[in-house]
Design a protein that fits this description.
Layout: E1 17-21, H1 25-36, E2 41-45, H2 48-57, E3 62-66, H3 74-85, E4 90-95, H4 100-108, E5 113-116, H5 121-152, H6 162-174, E6 181-184, H7 191-200, E7 209-213, H8 219-227, E8 228-229, E9 241-242, H9 244-247, E10 252-256, H10 266-275, E11 277-279, E12 286-288, E13 292-297, H11 301-306, H12 312-318, E14 321-324, H13 335-349, E15 356-357, H14 359-367, H15 373-387, E16 392-393, H16 400-403, H17 425-439, H18 444-451, H19 455-465
Parallel strand pairs: 1-2, 1-3, 3-4, 4-5, 6-13, 6-14, 7-10, 10-13, 15-16
Antiparallel strand pairs: 8-9, 11-12
Helix pairs in contact: 2-3, 10-12, 13-15, 17-18, 18-19
């Protein structure tokens, strides 16, 4: 084995329960000592049968096993036990050079990875760290999803911030009713997810859920799509066709970008909402429909109604209840959850292990303003999953426009670009500490690490500058 060298990574790995299986006690103890330094909890056994006992009755995140013990493929027996009794754990095989072909075959059989003797302890520890982070992040995502589903019954809406909890609470309250709902928020915040959740939790869940985007449609096409037509209504209308209101009869209709609907079309929409009647183009006969109406916009409809760009009576009609989705910059606590969820989804699509995200990279993502909201974040994570090496996303993998965004905020009392000349060093130091504390959510350990100072020094500086 090589000598133990400092781990080159600055961020602390996730602590895991590790089972070490090796028939050489000294070798096993050296591996355990290397893993205990970053905080992993290690259990050591010296053969297949004691390993069986631990795997059947214990709980582990990572299992490290020598390949050759009582017999040449004892490690494969350990792998089979792990897959049978603890399928969510990651198994790492330790092999001699001549056993590499067997170890590579084991990867197809479900092993996480293998490492050759003599061990480089830094490489070994990094490998276990990656396996632990993959397993623990997967557990965390599954646990969070289960908690949200159990507590709220809402699929697809990811987050645990106060803002998202408020949105989910509103969804639960309005879903059983038939009151019209207006979903507001910036582009990319997930308004369509809220509409779909309202339908799924309503009494109409077994009926149709129809969506229609009113933006960019000519008035004649929009009228035809919404209300349908009868045969002969216009040239080319060779048969009757129902519109989306009739199509969604008994269910839910989601009209997206309703603020972009032409003013001339708005009275017809108001009539449907008030009377439940639609009249197809070319016909005088009203047809009654029963539709739950949900709409969405990224515009300020109250202001638009005051300016005459949107009918005030229609605005109040569709705004039975308004659900506002906060932009991502107002719920930064949710960003790690969204990043890990997206990374898992895109990794699965590419049939590769779920990458972990280094702490510096995650802090960069949390501090970004995300003008495109969740849609922009998912796009960025997709690019990072493609770009990353060794199943780990580092700062270098973060898209350049996110890495270089200027986060100085003069309006918030911060030091903006070009304002450093003549500023005292104590003010600069205080500002650096203040902004880093905000970035880490007040975590002193992370703040000290990013600033390159000890925690005691940071504590003294906090008292000196009156920061909390």
């Amino acid at each position: 084995m090589s000598g133990d060298a400092p781990d080159p990574r600055n961020d602390r790995p996730m602590r895991a329960q590790v089972l070490i299986v090796d028939d050489e006690p000294e070798h096993a103890e050296v591996m355990a000592e290397a893993l205990r330094k970053p905080g992993h909890v290690c259990t050591i056994v010296h053969g297949l049968e004691p390993a069986r006992e631990e795997i059947v009755h214990g709980a582990f995140d990572v299992v490290v096993t020598d390949l050759v013990m009582e017999h040449e493929q004892a490690g494969l027996d350990v792998l089979a036990l792990v897959q049978e009794h603890q399928p969510d754990a990651a198994t790492i095989l330790v092999t001699a050079h001549g056993d590499v072909p067997t170890a590579k075959a084991a990867l197809k059989g479900g092993a996480y990875d293998f490492i050759e003797k003599p061990l480089d302890l830094v490489v070994f520890r990094n490998l276990v760290d990656r396996a632990a982070e993959t397993v623990l992040l997967r557990h965390r995502a599954a646990r969070l999803e289960g908690q949200l589903d159990a507590a709220y019954g809402v699929e697809g809406i990811i987050g645990d911030s106060a803002g998202i909890r408020g949105v989910i609470n509103q969804i639960r309250k309005v879903a059983p009713s038939t009151i019209p709902v207006l979903v507001t928020g910036e582009s990319g915040t997930g308004k369509e997810l809220v509409a779909a959740a309202i339908h799924r939790l309503s009494k109409r869940a077994s009926k149709r859920y129809a969506t229609f985007n009113t933006a960019g449609q000519s008035e004649s096409l929009l009228e035809d799509q919404l209300f349908g037509h009868v045969r002969g209504a216009y040239t080319g209308a060779d048969r009757d066709r129902e519109g989306v209101f009739e199509y969604a009869d008994g269910g839910t209709l989601f009209l997206d970008e309703i603020g972009d609907m032409p003013v001339s079309m708005q009275p017809r929409l108001l009539r449907v909402l008030e009377s439940g009647e639609v009249i197809r183009l070319g016909s005088n006969d009203p047809r009654t429909v029963d539709v739950r109406f949900v709409s969405a916009t990224n515009r300020d409809l109250r202001k638009a109604s005051e300016e005459g760009a949107f009918r005030e009576d229609l605005y109040f009609r569709i705004r039975g209840v308004e659900i506002r989705i906060p932009p991502l910059r107002e719920r930064r606590d949710d960003i790690p959850l969204l990043v890990n969820h997206a990374a898992g989804r895109f990794a699965a699509e590419m049939d590769r292990p779920i990458p972990t995200v280094s702490e510096p990279a995650m802090l960069r993502l949390v501090s970004y303003s995300w003008p495109g909201n969740v849609r922009e974040l998912f796009n960025a994570v997709h690019r990072m999953v493609i770009a990353c090496d060794d199943d780990r996303i580092e700062v270098r993998d973060v898209p350049e426009e996110i890495r270089v965004e200027d986060h100085d905020d003069e309006s918030a009392g911060g030091l903006g670009p070009g304002s450093l000349a003549g500023v005292g060093l104590d003010r600069l130091e205080k500002e650096a500490i203040r902004q880093t504390l905000a970035l880490t959510g007040g975590n002193r350990e992370q703040t000290a690490g990013l600033l390159g100072i000890g925690e005691r020094t940071l504590y003294r500086k906090l008292k000196e500058y009156g920061l909390r």
